Amino acid sequence: MPQRLITLFFFVFCFGLLFVVQAEEKYSMVDIKVPYQDLEAFHQLCLPIDECEREFFADYCRFSVALNQHDIDLLKNSRFPFIISIDNLQEHYVSRFNEEELKKAKDQLSLLQTEMQLGSMKGYYTLDETAKIMDSLYQKYGSKKLITAKKSIGKSFQGRDIYMFKISDNADLEESDKEPQVLYTSLTHAREPAGMMAIFYFVYHLLENYEKDSRVRSIVDNREIYFIPVVNPDGYLYNHNNGSGGGMWRKNRNGSGVDLNRNFGPHELWNYPNSGSSTSPSSDTYRGSAAFSEKETQVVRDFVLSKNIKTALNYHTYSNLLIYPWGYKNEIAHPMFVTMAKEMTKINGYRYGTAQGLLYAVRGDSDSWFYKEAKTFAMTPEVGKSSDGFWPSSSRIFPLAQENLESNLLLAEYAGQVPTK
User: Fold this and answer.
1) Which one of 87, 113, 140 terminates a domain?
2) Phi, psi (deg, nearest 5) at residue 37
3) Tens digit of pLDDT for each residue in 282-326?
4) How many separate helices (H) and strands (E) can be counted in the chain?
5) Against a cut of 0.85, is the pTM above it?
6) Which residue segment(s) compose the domain that 79 sits in?
7) Number of domains the chain contains
């Protein structure tokens, strides 16, 4: 056999093997018992405990966290006792997507007086549907100058468009000199669609109530409101193609994947001497080869630096939290964060604080970069309870979106009150 054919067959075999391994990767819910005096050693494992349930007891803390086999192997080689409470999380989430739950969601929708619809992926929008919704909203409200057409602000690792659109009273005009700019993003982590649905619910609320709600009209008339609904299109599509709802892939699709919320700069924060990200490509918190090594974080960075954004929400799930900088140390970046968070959580009851104060220290997170480099007051909602998990049941889509509506409105209003650069 010619050498060229042998090489080709070898490449195809290896590629196919890699695809099978990744497609079959299983995540389990793992309960871990950690004595308080050993918390620092536990954090050194770099597990993805930014999104998990915690219970506090007299002399230890119990973490319930979604882990892949790599992270379970780390636990096995550590001194921390654990049990697997749910063997296959994707199967668990899929089992909750049934006709009864979907009917509940449709019944909820019928009472909401909105044209927003459920998506075809167990109630969630697919990647293609997000683009079609942006187009349909522009077709209806673009003539009123309330929304721009979707615009690609860059490409993902696999070459997919990362779309942005804007809502304002003169959406096609640049009025940042007199109208503070606001940004909402979601699906940085590919398995967290509840944040994306909350953003679209907010978008529909602004457009549908502009002519009949004085508060909405004031916000739209006096702000430039930007949206990036899908920061990580490759990862989100991968989850769709491998289960059509319930997929557990978190990172982007560059090789073994990079955790985009550990890939932001500047270098001194990305490389801060703590255990807030992993240097192992197999880990779900792998930070990448350098700050902003990934196409997706570069796109967000370049877009933010091209604007003068005052406030931002970068949506994630889950834990019922509102997190503000700093991520890498237990220090509040500015007192205004506390003022904002206190008001923004009055309705949904989310706990608020720094990442280390609520969870553990992280490095390379988006919010710290937003504030340090762009002077944007950026925060992260972790939407949903532990029972919701990464893929809340269909009947939870709208309640979760509704409980974040007030915080979305307040964030836009705060854009005119935060300290200037």
Assistant:
1) 87
2) -70, -10
3) 999 999 999 999 999 999 999 999 999 999 999 999 999 999 999
4) 16, 12
5) yes
6) 3-87
7) 2
Each residue of 218-254: b (16+ CB within 10 Å) or e? ebbebbbbbbbbbbbbbbbbbbbebbebbbbbbbbbb
Query: pLDDT tens-digit profile of 194-218?
Result: 999 999 999 999 999 999 999 999 9
**Which distant-in-sequence residues (6+ apart) come within 8 Å of 69 by Cβ?**
25, 26
**CATH code of the domain covering residue 270:** 3.40.630.10
Question: Is cis: bond before 318, omega within 30 of 0?
Answer: yes
Q: Does residue 421 form part of some domain?
A: no
The residue annotated as part of the active site, out of 101, 382, 403, 413, is: 382
Distance CA 48, CA 41 (A): 15
CB 186 within 8 A of CB 315: yes
Stretch (H or E) spanning 286: none
Q: Are residues 101 and 76 in the same domain?
A: no
- Residue 420 placed within a domain: no
Catalytic residue status for 268: no
110 and 39 share one domain: no
Residue 106: other Cβ atoms inside 10 A: 14
Please report, for residues 53, 136, 290, 391, the alpha-carbon distance to residue 49 in angstroms, rounded to integers and kept in the order given: 8, 38, 22, 17
